[in-house]
Amino acid sequence: MEDGFVGLRHILTIVFLSGFAGLMVAPVITDVTVAAVCSGPDDSCSLAVYLTGFQQVAIGLGTMVMMPVIGNLSDRYGIKAILTLPMCLSILPPVILGYRRDTNFFYLYYIIKILTALVCEGAVDCLAFAYVAENIHDRTRISAFSILGGTKTISALCGTLVARFLPIALIFQVSAISFLVGLVYMRVFLKERLNNDDDGEDHHHQDDHNSNDITMLAEPILNDTTIKRVVFIKKQSSLKDMISLMKTSTIFVQVLVVTFFSSFSDSGMQSAFLYFLKARFGFDKNQFADLMMLITIVGSITQLFILPRFASVIGERKLLSTGLLMEVINMAIVSISWAPWVSRWKLRT
C-alpha cells in the first residue's frame, strides 16, 4: 500500500511532463503567430490578437461543456483511462508546428489546437487534482494540492528555460516528445488508486469508493447541502444532478463565480498582453522567456514552500482571499504598461 505524498510521485511526474511540454511553447507562440498572419515580423497587426482571443473564447466555452463530461467519464471508467485521451491529443498541435510554421500550417495548427483543446485544456490538471482528492484525505489534502500546483509551476519554469535556449523548430519537437513520454509513463506507472493494489477485489474497491464519496460530502463545499447521496454514488451523473448541486449548494455557486471572474481576467490579459509587449517594446522569444521565468520562479517558491505552511495556519478562506488580492495587485501593475509614459520611458532608456 502506498500512502501519503510518496504515493503521489507518479501523478506529480505526469503533471510535470505535461506542463513542461505545454508551457514550453508559450514564449514562442507569439512570434510564430505574428510571422504567420502579419505582413512582417515586427508588424503590430490586430489579426493576431483577434485570432488568439477567438481561440481562447472557443476553448473556454468548449471546456465549460466538456470538463463535466470528462469528470463523469473518469468516475465511470477511472482517472487513468480517461487521462489517456487528452495526453494523446496534446501531441498533435506541436507536431504540426514542429514540421512547418508557414501560414497554411499555422492555420492547420490553429484549427487542430481549438479542437483538441476542447478535451485537453485543463483536463490533465483537473484529473490530477481529482486523483489527489481521491487518494489524500483530511487536512493534508490542501498541502497536497499546493505541492501539485508547485509542481506545475516548476514544470513551467523548466519549459520556459529550455525554450529560452532552443531554436523555434526544436521547441515544438521537444514539446511533442515530452507529451509522448508523459503518456507512456502514465500508462506504465500510474495506479488507479493508491489504497487498493488488488484490482481483483471489485467489491472492496466499490466499498472504498463509496466511503470516499461520504468523506467528500463532509468537505466544506457540500457540508450544508441537502443533496441526496445517490447523486454522487451513481457512476455517471446527469445534467439535472449538476443543476441540482448548483441550486442546493450556495458555497459551490460562490466558488464558480470566483473562478469565472478570476479566469476571465487572466484570459483577457493573456490574449493581448504578449502582443502588446511585442508591438510596443519589440519583445521576442528570449525576452518573453525571461519574463515568464521571473514569474514562475516566484510562483514555484510560493506554492512549494509558503502556501503549504499558510494553508494549515490561516485556513482555506483566508488563503483564497490572499490569492485573489495578489491577482488584483498583479492586474493593477500590468495595467500601467498601457500608459503612454511607460512607452516614453522605454524610448529614453
Query: What kind of sheet is the major sheet?
Result: none
Task: Provide the CATH topology.
Answer: Growth Hormone, Chain: A
Number of helices: 15
CATH class: Mainly Alpha
End-to-end gap? 61 Å
Helix and strand composition category: mainly alpha
CATH superfamily: MFS general substrate transporter like domains
Shape, per Cα inertia axes: globular
Could you name the ranges where pLDDT drops below 50 across 5 or more consecutive residues?
A: 197-236
Whole-number tally of structural domains: 1
Q: What Rg do the Cα atoms give?
A: 21 Å
Q: Using DSSP, what is the number of strands? A: 0
CATH-level-2 architecture: Up-down Bundle
How would you characterize this protein structure?
α5 (92-99) packs antiparallel against α9 (168-189), α8 (140-165) packs across α14 and α13 (250-281) packs across α14. It is globular, with a radius of gyration of 21 Å. The protein is mostly helical. Mean pLDDT is 77; it is low at 197-236. It has one domain (5-195, 249-348): Growth Hormone, Chain: A, CATH 1.20.1250. The protein has helices at 9-23, 26-37, 47-77, 79-89, 92-99, 103-120, 123-135, 140-165, 168-189, 202-217, 230-233, 239-248, 250-281, 285-336, 340-348. Pfam families: MFS_1 (PF07690). The chain crosses the membrane at residues 12-35, 47-70, 77-96, 108-132, 144-162, 168-186, 251-276, 288-307, 319-341. Keywords: Membrane, Transmembrane, Transmembrane helix, Transport.
